[in-house]
Design a protein that fits this description.
Elements lengths: L13 H18 L4 H9 L6 E2 L6 E2 L2 H26 L6 H26 L17 H9 L7 H25 L6 H19 L5 H18 L5 H9 L10 H25 L9 H4 L2 H29 L7 H10 L4 H12 L5 H27 L7 H14 L11
Helix pairs in contact: 1-5, 1-10, 3-6, 3-9, 3-10, 4-6, 4-12, 5-6, 6-13, 7-8, 7-9, 8-9, 10-14, 12-13, 12-15, 13-15, 14-15
């Protein structure tokens, strides 16, 4: 923050989303230019005949492996740190407060999956992509929401943030349970022992972060060889990082803040650059109407708002709670949750790789995310247009303290 309270351009909520858009456009342009084949070869060609692993568990080392199985581990480490902070000191520690976004996230995963399955039921091979439209991209969704400025009530923003975080946890569980293949027993055993040691370190009061990163690297190696997707190592490592030290400081929040700019301005744009582009040559109406593209696109655009709305309405009635906004405002937020983008693309690569089915996956993800972003903006603008703008302190003070202290409730006004 500057002394005046204004944020630098790289601190604004919109910036990560704009960077992702730029990376996607660059990827699209490069893949459809004369350099497209060269770019694809750079990503897929094995590096110096090197492999990662032993025997049948070995993976050819290429740029895609480095990005999707190594850099994305850091992304999931960051998400895991955020999840732990919200659970230990944030609103998720209160089950009643967490119930509404938790129910919304669950409904927002089930409904899109059902739409995808309904449209692809005739082709069993396509059903592997059922989880693609179930994901929400936190950075992109929050970035798009911030375009509306201070008229959006803080409660709506926090609901979307909480929902997206829980959604990511669901995506992590889905990856672990449904996109892990050819399990290797000894590697799973090594991962379990390593994780157990890290938990004991936490209980014993070990605080230095580099020790956790060292064991986390070993855990990643075992996961990569085990058949369970390596990104799970990032989440497991985050679970073992200490929340507080004896002086009241937070190793976890320190790690989260250190990783945040690297994740937002390096890892996610690199992933988008290498996974979001669509080759238009040979693609036509048939590609747009491909069952996978339709399942993903309609799952994001229709499934997300339908599932979230039904789930949070039922939860409000059962718990006798009030939602953080009007029906129209909540609908707009639910539509914005249909921005799957990087998370949906990532699950798409796990489901279908980079073969022929990658094109309809990307059409569905990009098309569905774009429609969700535009439609959500229109609905929210209309529903919030008559609201008085909140002062910067009303919104930023709450979020700034949440970042510094790891809490999102019982926040006292700052003392001057």
């Amino acid at each position: 923050m500057t002394s005046s309270g204004a944020r630098h351009w790289w601190q604004r909520d919109t910036t990560p989303g704009l960077v992702l858009i730029a990376a996607t456009i660059i990827s699209f342009v490069v893949l459809n230019s004369s350099a497209g084949e060269t770019f694809h070869a750079l990503l897929e060609n094995q590096i110096a005949n090197l492999s990662v692993g032993i025997g049948e568990a070995a993976h050819p080392l290429n740029a895609h492996l480095i990005i999707n199985d190594a850099l994305m581990v850091i992304f999931f480490l960051y998400v895991g740190l955020e999840l732990k902070r919200e659970t230990v000191e944030g609103p998720f520690k209160n089950p009643r407060e967490a119930a509404l976004p938790m129910a919304g996230a669950l409904g927002g995963m089930i409904a899109p999956a059902l739409i995808f399955v309904a449209l692809n039921f005739h082709e069993p091979a396509y059903l592997r992509g059922w989880a693609i439209p179930a994901a929400t991209d936190i950075a992109f969704a929050i970035g798009v929401l911030s375009l509306l400025g201070p008229r959006v009530p803080a409660g709506l923003r926090l609901f979307l943030l909480a929902l997206a975080i829980i959604d990511d946890l669901g995506a992590i569980l889905v990856i672990a349970l449904f996109y892990s293949t050819h399990l290797v027993g000894w590697a799973l055993g090594g991962a379990a022992v390593t994780f157990g040691i890290m938990l004991l370190m936490n209980r014993a009061g070990v605080k230095p972060l580099p020790i956790y990163w060292l064991f986390g690297l070993a855990l990643w190696g075992f996961m990569l060889l085990s058949g369970v997707h390596a990104t799970i190592a990032g989440v497991l490592t985050a679970m073992t990082v200490p929340m507080r030290d004896k002086a009241g400081g937070s190793p976890l929040i320190t790690a989260e803040h250190t990783l945040k700019p690297w994740v937002q301005f390096a890892i996610m744009p690199i992933f988008a650059l290498t996974n979001a582009g669509v080759v238009l040559h040979g693609a036509g109406v048939a590609t747009l109407l491909h069952p996978i593209a339709l399942g993903v696109g309609l799952g994001l655009v229709l499934g997300k708002p339908i599932g979230i709305t039904i789930a949070y309405q039922l939860t409000c009635k059962v718990l006798k709670q009030q939602p953080p906004g009007t029906i129209g405002q909540m609908l707009g937020i639910s539509i914005l949750a249909g921005i799957g983008f990087t998370m949906s693309l990532f699950i798409g690569t796990l489901a279908f790789g980079s073969g022929d089915l990658a094109t309809p996956v990307r059409f569905g993800v990009l098309g569905g995310s774009l429609i969700s972003a535009l439609l959500g903006l229109v609905v929210l603008w209309w529903c919030c247009r008559k609201l008085a703008p909140q002062t910067a302190s009303d919104l930023s003070r709450e979020e700034e303290l949440a970042e510094q202290r790891g809490v999102l409730e019982n926040i006292d006004p700052p003392k001057h």
